[in-house]
Each structure stands twice: as C-alpha cells, then as structure tokens.
Amino acid sequence: MTTEEMFGYEEPCFVISVAARMLGVQTQTLRYYERIGLVEPHRTGGNRRVYSRRDIERVRRIRNLMEDLGVNLAGVEVVMRLMDRLHYANGEVQRLHEENEQLKGMLRSARRP
Fold first, then answer.
1. What SS3 state is found at 1?
2. pLDDT digit string (tens) for 99-111?
3. How many CA atoms lie within 13 A of 48 on its CB side?
4. Long-range contact list for 58-63, CB < 8 A, 24+ apart?
5. Of 28, 51, 56, 61, which has the maximum CB count within 10 A?
6. Dihedrals phi, psi of 79, to nearest 5 degrees
7. What CATH class has 3-111?
C-alpha cells in the first residue's frame, strides 16, 4: 500500500504554517493564492485552512511556473485554469470510455442466444 493510499491524496492534513514550511513560502503567500483562486484549502469548523497533498503539489506547480519558467502570476492563473480544464476533460473522456465498454458488454450479452 502506497503512502497516498494510506493517507489519501485529497485528505486535508497540513495546517497553513506546516504547508508554508514544506513549500518554502510565507503563510501570506498561501493566503494570497487562495484569495485569487489558485488554491482552495479545506476549512475546519473553526475556519482554519488545512491543505491536502494535492494542494501542496498544486502550489509546487505554481511556484515552478513562476521560478523556473518565469511566468508571471497572471500567466500562472491562465495556465492553472487550463490545466484544471484539461484534467476535467481527461476525466470525462475516461468516464465515456468506461461507459462505452459497458455498453459493448451489454450488447454482446444481449446478442448471445
């Protein structure tokens, strides 16, 4: 069993100070990214931000675009939104493929005497 399977990639488990330390950024940076819609951490009942592994990876991608490729924040917003749309579209393609395979199986079963 992998770590991702054990703890869940989507499970919120890092408070903002820990997430910031892991990423090498200030907590204000994470708050700003949230304010402009680049990341959406989970909120606890007490309204504390809690980040998942997926959130951490997303911020790493944002930082890589800015630091390694020199993309400004406006460009990062565009790139991340396009990546989100592509991820959604890939999921839809996969879902349709699975649905198609199920229909093929049903047709084969219906044709058998």
1. coil
2. 999 999 998 888 8
3. 11
4. 59/19, 59/23, 59/25, 59/30, 59/33, 60/23, 62/33, 62/38, 63/23, 63/25
5. 51
6. -60, -45
7. mainly alpha
Phi, psi (deg, nearest 5) at residue 51: -100, 140
CB 10 within 8 A of CB 52: yes
> Tokens for 100?
């198609």
Least confident of 7-21, 39-53, 92-106: 7-21
Task: Give me the pLDDT at residue 110, please.
Answer: 85
* Sign, Cα dihedral of 60, 61, 63, 67: positive
The encoded tokens of residue 111 equal 């044709």
Q: Which of the 8 DSSP states describes residue 112?
A: -
